[in-house]
Design brief:
alpha/beta, 11 helices, binds adenosine-5'-triphosphate, about 15% strand, globular, binds magnesium ion, homodimer
Amino acid sequence: RTRVIAVANQKGGVGKTTTVINLAACLAQTGKKILVVDLDPQSNATSGFGLDPEDGASVYRALIEDEPLADRVRPTAIRNVEIVPSELDLAGAEVDVARMEGYLQRFRSILRPFLEANGYDFVLVDCPPSLGILTMNALTAADAMLIPIQCEYYALEGLSVVTRLIRQMHESGANPGLELEGIVLTMYDARTRLATEVVEEVRRHFGEQVFQTVVPRNVRVSEAPSFGKPVVLHDRRSSGARAYRALAKEFLKRHANR
Amino acid sequence: RTRVIAVANQKGGVGKTTTVINLAACLAQTGKKILVVDLDPQSNATSGFGLDPEDGASVYRALIEDEPLADRVRPTAIRNVEIVPSELDLAGAEVDVARMEGYLQRFRSILRPFLEANGYDFVLVDCPPSLGILTMNALTAADAMLIPIQCEYYALEGLSVVTRLIRQMHESGANPGLELEGIVLTMYDARTRLATEVVEEVRRHFGEQVFQTVVPRNVRVSEAPSFGKPVVLHDRRSSGARAYRALAKEFLKRHANR
Ligand SMILES: Nc1ncnc2c1ncn2[C@@H]1O[C@H](COP(=O)(O)OP(=O)(O)OP(=O)(O)O)[C@@H](O)[C@H]1O
Ligand SMILES: Nc1ncnc2c1ncn2[C@@H]1O[C@H](COP(=O)(O)OP(=O)(O)OP(=O)(O)O)[C@@H](O)[C@H]1O
Ligand SMILES: [Mg+2]
Ligand SMILES: [Mg+2]
């Protein structure tokens, strides 16, 4: 069975897209079949794989008019990674979907049937930096939520909101089975005391739920999108690439014991 | 007359909150009276001034039930800076306000009368990282939009969306007078070629609309919120503080010629 993971955090710029792109690429290199869904109207995951946003190709019309998802899947340059790209109109989906019956279940109702007919191991959904309709749709459709956290002060404040969200999904019945896949610490800068304090604080609160792998701040990571490639392909020896490979290994180990 | 400036960019983590806090503090030090409005449910601007989010104190109930804004203004530790704080419920405003008559004008209709009766020089509105109802309300109420841009690749992609927004505000009649206050380049890391490329590209496209002052990436800036203070007070000699003081000077020079 395909495991659907929503990569979400309402705090902006914490590494959601970077984690989706690089985790997808690393999992694919181990032979796993990956589908990435870009639910962010900014379409950074789409361009991070070297594709252009494509009018009509995003989930937008599938959410609004029940058009099949299968027509929207595009190959990427990476074997075993396919993507449903984003488009600008997706921003309009927030208002349009909000007015529909069962508006939280729209994405789940188009994704689940599609997955029955296709053999992906994992689906990674890149969410926009908000807890609006698109992110809520991703969390309702997902088996688990992966939360990237920047090693910065504001990151700590947002954490309680995000974890409360999982409880809300359970209590409201929107997705009683939603798990926490884990918390990934990103953009760690060893030269600052603040970064170490954030890591210690997050580990103290969340223990085992925090991945051991910490992704360092590394300029090769921020350069990679300008080449339309994940950093694990742009510069495989960089500290950022090594960290994402280690994260993928740790991620798979958690699933090996399933 | 008070000038209302919405600090907005749907790209997350680009320095919107940091720019609001430090520009407000620097303008206040020159004697200007500043009101900050925290329109982001994450309430980073609120905590960046050392305040706690306060249930019932945000614009939320003012937007929904026409309660006066005056009861929601709080002093900060900085002379000449007051703030309308945020609260968690503000996230619910997106859906509630969307269902109201004239939902884009809600914030304008409560802010403008309030400003008539109070003598602020500038209002700085901190927007969430999205182009949802809260940001659209801020842009409808504002005289101008200030756009922070991170010196990173994804920042370039988002720029065309944000500037298209001003045209949309004009063409739709929502705010025909909305100006571009300027574009501020933030988190510039001189050690990377990418940062220089982004600066050159943005200046090539937007010329004079880009502030000369570029804010460098500086750890003292990211430490400041953990002390509940703007960097210009936390460490006034840091490169981040010097840059925000220079930005405020440049900002005021633009208005001296008005
Ligand atoms: N480990 C890292 N080292 C250096 N730069 C990084 C790292 N991870 C991400 N970045 C850069 O930081 C910026 C923010 O990352 P990214 O866009 O992945 O975050 P996001 O959470 O998806 O943002 P948004 O909230 O806008 O969707 C990008 O410019 C990215 O290239
Ligand atoms: N010049 C700088 N140097 C170093 N760190 C910075 C700088 N400016 C901002 N930061 C840090 O980068 C992170 C993002 O900045 P900030 O929160 O101001 O961005 P934002 O655009 O308001 O984010 P959001 O989209 O979530 O509202 C914060 O942790 C902040 O402390
Ligand atoms: Mg993203
Ligand atoms: Mg902010």
